[in-house]
Amino acid sequence: MLSRNELDALKKSPGFLSAYPDGVIKLDTTQTYKFLSLNTATGLWPASQYGKDVIIGVVDSGIWPESPSFHDGGMTEIPARWKGICQGYRAAYPDDPIIMDSARDERGHGTHVASIAAGNYVHNVSFFGYAPGTARGGVASDTLAGIDQAVADGVDILSISLSAEEIDLYENPLSIASFGARERGVLVCFSAGNRGPSLRTITTSIPWAVIVASGTVDRWFAGTLTLGNDKTITGWSLFPARATVRNLPLIYN
After folding, report:
1. Which of 28, 97, 120, 210 has the fewest Cβ atoms surrounding its Cβ within 10 A?
2. Entry pTM
3. Is domain 17-219 in CATH 2.60.130.10, yes or no?
């Protein structure tokens, strides 16, 4: 973190291009593969050979490597073009007295996202309702460092289920970093955010990236219907909380 004086001095340094305020990054997700009706017999999975030899970089809350989703039984060798290594901070800097945050995923979000993109089969397991979206997340500077490292490591695709408050493209660190990744031939995929459904709730609109959204979900939410006579009925709703919906028919079933 820089003070105002340090920032002013940095701007005068040779090679300085730009500086942006560090912002909060939120985690986005919902259940995925079951909702998309993916299966092993037909469709996208077998047609794409399950992404054979594709290197996917996941920038997220970490990973739990012992998860059965990441066992490598029956998988091919790591492509030779991969330049990355499996190494924690403590392994790289054993004499550093500073205790760094672990890359282990204590929230479940990064493990969930990575298992969808590149996980192996786990028999008799359901992911229904796993790892719902949360307001907790990280900061933009850490995300940018992850993107830069993933590109340097030789990934083919970047999966980023994160979002920030929407700002102009030329001031958005995520859009700038993803543009650099595209210049290196890396396909970048972002989530559209967990807000909505209502107008102007897509938090990531980057034209050179793939933005993934869903027009609906197969979940039900508890809701309260208030009638004109102030009588309330509690049931299931497809509308967000505190939604004002008028002139809809009442259907008895």
Report:
1. 97
2. 0.68
3. no
